[in-house]
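During the reporting period the student researcher (J.K.) took over the structure-prediction task from the postdoctoral fellow and processed the backlog of single-chain submissions. One of the processed entries is reproduced below for the supervisory committee.
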Amino acid sequence: MNSVTLRLEAEPLILSALREDITSEDVTTASVIGEEATGEVRLIAKQDGVICGLDVFARTFELLDPTAACEFTVAEGDDVTSGQELGIVRAHVRALLSGERVALNYLQRMSGIATYTRRMAALFAGTKTRLVDTRKTCPNMRVFEKEAVRVGGGGNHRYNLSDGVLLKDNHIDAAGDVAKAVAAARAYAPFVRKIEVEVETIDMVREALSAGADIIMLDNMDHDTMAEAMRVIDGAAEVEVSGNVTAENAAALVDLGVDYVSSGALTHSAPILDLSLKHLTVLG
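J.K. obtained the following structure tokens:
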């Protein structure tokens, strides 16, 4: 995550998470350690996976203690193994203890998504197909989760509703049909926006093509129907496949030769990567 995104988008959310966890004080920590005590604690992997979110992890402690410093032995996107020491955090002990859970929550969640994404992205290695995410993210976690997808080797679909035109079934129903929906989007949206149309049948594929859709999303079709859709489209539009795509079934999509495969599972179903802060030492 670049420094601008971290400060402008992520930092307010990190502060909110810290406020959620510390409404007035960390009463446990305040009762056992003085304000001026400093120390260090070690970050350790408890599972194999892809590490992601180191800058967010570090910033969490810095917001509690401006003197906090993290020395990592790994870089963003590195593979890590169970038992590996990933770095040391040095700060006032109160900051180490009070920030531990929030910092680990971000790091574990982002690393889990990056790990799951890398596993799925590997299925499309060497092909034209790009694996991308969706808007199925946890509220107020999108900036972190989409960054984790990117670090894991996936791409980002729309960041939010302001990013592009995606005409789904309910938009089409509201407009009347595919042609009317595309025409209305062309008339309203800025000319720099591509128009994507979600389709569920071959007839809808033909309608989307006739209407001039830039991208056609094949939604929840079986393999034979998607293969037929690719023959009908024949390069006249970019093609995305979507609908319950997971690491367990994504390999079946490789032979289709579509441009994009989108998967909500990258963000809503990835398990965390188990990480821990251990061996806290009081230095002074």
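The committee noted the following: The mean pLDDT is 96.
J.K. will present the remaining backlog at the next meeting.
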